[in-house]
Amino acid sequence: MRTFKSKLGSFITGFINEKRGNGFSYEFEEYMLKRFDSFIIEHDLDDGILSRTLVLEWAIQTPTESINYRNQRVSFTRQFGYYLLSLGKQAYIPMWMASESTSVPYIPSKSEIEEIYQSVDSYRLRHSCARYPQIELSVLFRLYYCCGLRLAESCYLKREHVDLEQGVLHIMHSKGDKDRLVPMARDLTDLCRKYDERMQARFPDGIWFFPRIDGKAPILKTTVDEMFAEIWKHTKASKTAPKAPRVHSLRHAFVIEKMNTWMKGGISEAMLPYLSVYLGHSSISETFYYFHIKEPIFEVIREKDGTSATVIPKVVEYEQ
Fold this sequence. Notes:
hpI Integrase, Chain A
């Protein structure tokens, strides 16, 4: 664990240990709380109290971050505040802040996805991610599209939760603290097996399936986002696409591909409950979100289900 140097440092350590004791990886949160700890010292606010002044200073949006990212930073502070209150300590709890409206994500076509993987497999990245083994990037980004994983689910995947004999991923404590099993295709399982052999040689006692460069912690979500942005930048499609996809766009593309295939076969309704479970959705209503995306690549959905606008219920905002 990182070393926290402020007067609140020991409490931050206790807070993280409590979260991990409850089964959460809390890696990205630890990284953000370390930033908070440094912020306290740098801004001369180190009086050992989670005060209103400290929290409001921390909550100021920086020029380089989005509203949602700022809100995420503050949410970790809010959780930490509740932890302090549970110990009988003084703490200011920040209010919930409005998020940016969620726009429809750009979902790459099949040809664009092929370009993405060509870039992953062959291009020498200039980012610090160039220090990561090429096979690690190849496997990491294939899991998002081939298995429809969320961003954090690949990052926090432990080796013990990857069954290379059966070809099954055990996704633990994901969104909503839910666990699920995600089967992989045989060729992807074979690729994961080759990758794991390589990483075993590099980190014999490694815990994480996608470790950081030093092998001591999982790869950060921010690192994966940055890598994907550079990978996309070196595709031909990036010069003509209306906007850039994100890592999560690969999950969306996976779902749409499945829906299109099933609709061509006339079995989409029967398979939706299974797809919902596979994706880790809380209910089928979350999966119905994809019926409302209006992109040319979803022609099969609109042609096969012309009544969707009136029959399919209004859905929640698309999940992350």
